[in-house]
Design brief:
By secondary structure, the protein is of the alpha+beta class. The chain contains three helices and ten strands, in the order ββββββααββββα. Helices cover 18% and strands 42% of the residues.
Length: 139
């Protein structure tokens, strides 16, 4: 059987109890080319629910030109990072910048299919710089 994707591998295990086992292993997939990266100010940290009750559930960002607000409900971070963001929300809201990837930004300035990937301080925000710096240094 020929491999249909570059870097993929198909393995077949001999029959056991009259069943063949076939596995398709695909190469790792990196960032998709149809997603772009953005850095926008955090306007609000939204509380989580269910499994994420008591931690950050979503991050609301503000479009730098239109002022439109959008929620990044997909947080591609560890649970401990999610909890740290929730515990420091007062220092981060309107003083830190969310890094995220999105499929599209609409004409009105809304984020389509956004995924939060990290944060950094807003320009001129000394408090956010101190909080983020201490966290990254593990203090």
């Amino acid at each position: 059987m020929a491999n249909s994707l570059p870097g993929s591998r198909i393995t077949r295990t001999p029959p056991r109890d009259n069943w063949w086992k076939t596995q398709l292993r695909l190469p790792p997939i990196g960032p998709t080319p149809d997603r772009r990266r953005y850095d926008w100010e955090i306007s609000e940290i939204v509380p989580g629910s269910g499994k994420y009750a008591g931690s950050a559930g979503a991050i609301q960002v503000r479009h730098p030109i239109t002022g439109a607000r959008s929620e990044l409900g997909s947080l591609a971070i560890a649970d401990a990072e999610r909890q740290w963001i929730w515990d420091h929300r007062a220092e981060l809201e309107r003083q830190a910048v969310a890094k995220f990837e999105a499929m599209e930004i609409t004409d009105a300035g809304a984020v389509r299919s956004g995924t939060f990937t990290g944060l950094h301080q807003a320009k001129g925000s000394e408090l956010a710089l101190q909080v983020i710096g201490k966290h990254q240094l593990g203090r």
